[in-house]
Amino acid sequence: MMHGITSSTALWYASRATGVVSLVLLSAVMIIGILVNRQGRLPGLPRFAVLGLHRNLSLLAVTFVALHVITAVADSFVSISLAAAVIPFVSAYEPLWLGLGAVSLDLMAAVIVTSLLRRYIGRRTWRAVHWLAYASWPAAVAHSIGSSKDLQNGPLLGLAVACILGVVGALAWRLARARAEVPRARRVPDLMASQRIPEGHAAGQAPQDRLVRAGRR
Amino acid sequence: MSHRKQSISSRAAARDRGRARLRAATVSATAASLIAAGGVAFTLPGATASATGTSSGSGARSSQHASSSSGTSNSSSSGSLSSPTSAPTSSSGSGQVTSGGS
């Protein structure tokens, strides 16, 4: 008993299974990425290891996404061209849901490529492109739930909901941390006020400024 | 001086421990993903059940997938797909009809 998996349906099952695992991995990557951004820690791992785990899981997720796309294209019963997997909304089959998958794939590719070339493109550009992950993940979720009935009911629906709740929870935690954090521009004045550093003795204040103040007196 | 050396060596040891944990976590995640993919593939319902009903194209595609996967030998022995569970009757994509009919 192979539960319907035969040589002719193996790719179809592989595509669906790798799609489900990709969704879980991408959600985990999102959650860890949000944690890393706000100096979050995972139990038992130092911060550099959390960063490394984020990178390794990203590469693992990309591998599974690649397998998902390759098996979907190679499956002989499905008329999905390679172009339809990469170019959004050109597929004859499920154009909207497959188009969202293509959008997610393209954004993900941009994020991964810029991360691999980070030292050459500069932090600012890398960071700007990295924000695309926040668009890529919802597109992937919509593609997963919309294009397959596997995730529309049963335990896999619960898994999809858990992924969504996990990322939304991490996002809420990030926003709460960001709101509680003192903005950089206010950090020095606040520190001075709290420690009552005498005027003119703050670090970074220009000596000329002190002289001008002294002259005014 | 020796205190400083001790501090450096303890930091290096902590870093090595962190690296080992990272490696273990990565290997565990990879293994878990592969096992999960296999497990999910075996627990997924048949292709007919996985079809999305909203689009005519998906229904036709998936039902063909089911019928051809289970009925390939039947069609070769009897020579015709006499009573498919759900024939690709809908007016959806031409690609699906080609693959299902053959």
Question: What can you see in these coordinates?
Answer:
The complex is a heterodimer of chains A (217) and B (102). Chain A is mainly α. Chain A has 2 domains: 172 residues, Four Helix Bundle (Hemerythrin (Met), subunit A); 32 residues, no CATH class. Chain A is built from 10 helices and no strands. In chain A, helix 1 runs antiparallel to helix 7, helix 2 crosses helix 4 and helix 4 packs antiparallel against helix 6. Chain B is built from 4 helices and no strands. With 102 residues, chain B is mainly α. The C terminus of chain B is likely disordered. Chain B starts with a helix and ends with a helix. The longest helix of chain B is centred in the N-terminal third of the chain and has 42 residues. Chain B is rod-shaped. At the A-B interface, helix 1 and helix 2 of A face helix 1, helix 2, helix 3 and helix 4 of B.
Topology overview:
The complex is a heterodimer of chains A (217) and B (102).
Chain A: H1 10-37, H2 47-74, H3 82-86, H4 95-116, H5 118-121, H6 123-130, H7 133-147, H8 155-180, H9 184-195, H10 207-216
Helix pairs in contact in A: 1-2, 1-7, 1-8, 2-4, 4-6, 4-7
Chain B: H1 2-43, H2 47-50, H3 56-78, H4 94-101
Helix pairs in contact in B: 3-4
